[in-house]
């Protein structure tokens, strides 16, 4: 197969603290790309000028040296966009470790496949790896609290938690109540009344939970989530930094913070732009293996266990991504993923 020597890609533009479409040399592989919150956050807080942007993608393989990933295969995956000059999903061609893609089942459209990888892996990292739960799942029983059920991570967390045998209580905006219930939530409350959330969760769970995932993980959401635990405490997964104030509310609750980027297995300097302070996360073969093993499970989760992609809205192509990033930054994207089609 022949492909051009240059292609278009989104890169971070320091001068405007924004993004631009640039023509760059083609790396080597390719289609649908999706906006994640981490994309605009990288532009705002982490990326340097010239870094390529975009994490989640799905497409058709155009070149491969791995016999398990052949030219013409439909695959999906994610890369650490916003960090490197040569890695970014918002481009006509995407290169990645062949062990870090999964084969998309025939019945699953690529636009849906593109919305799955990073959020579902975040759920594997939290509810399975750090909670020390088996997979295939045991029938856990009992309740789990998922803060932010209508987020992409939340919709996958609900589905995986149900497969693990939990009853799920969550919070979302009222216009997303039907959505989270259709993905499996047993109970849902409006997060805008924090006291009512805590009271309602304690009530439906008959005294509180021992496991929770806060998919929003701001200081106030962590504080609310911590208070939904029962008298014997438990483990609370957060996916932004731990709030010391929230943690102080419940010393009997173990707060665990994870960052999915560690699953690439490489040492990671995760310092914020301009802070000068190195935050070094060590390379981890264990995390690399979790990444590969979890991706291997995705085709069956979709085909046999009925795990569904979040609702999505198709947008334009590369030129339209900057506007989508702005909408996400303004908190205007609710209960859905924005998907862009790049290439044929
Ligand atoms: N640590 C990691 O490795 C990791 C991995 C993935 C994501 N993340 C982070 O996790 C967060 C969620 O990511 P995502 O992709 O799932 O987000 P998303 O789908 O873009 O989240 C949008 C949803 O968040 C809900 N929401 C926003 N603010 C809220 C609040 N204060 N309380 C309750 N719900 C709120 C909204 O719910 P309603 O519309 O119903 O109000 C909206 O539907 C992001 O901050 C992301 O950066 C971290």
Automatic annotation (TrEMBL):
Family annotation (InterPro entries): ADH-like_C (IPR013149), ADH-like_N (IPR013154), ER (IPR020843), GroES-like_sf (IPR011032), NAD(P)-bd_dom_sf (IPR036291), Trans-enoyl_RdTase-like (IPR047122)
Highest taxon in the source lineage: Eukaryota
SUPFAM superfamilies for this protein: GroES-like (SSF50129), NAD(P)-binding Rossmann-fold domains (SSF51735)
An MF annotation (GO) of this entry: oxidoreductase activity, acting on NAD(P)H
Annotated Enoyl reductase (ER) domain residues: 18-339
Pfam families in UniProt: ADH_N, ADH_zinc_N
Protein name from the UniProt record: Protein TOXD
Organism (species): Vanrija pseudolonga
Gene name for this UniProt entry: TOXD_3
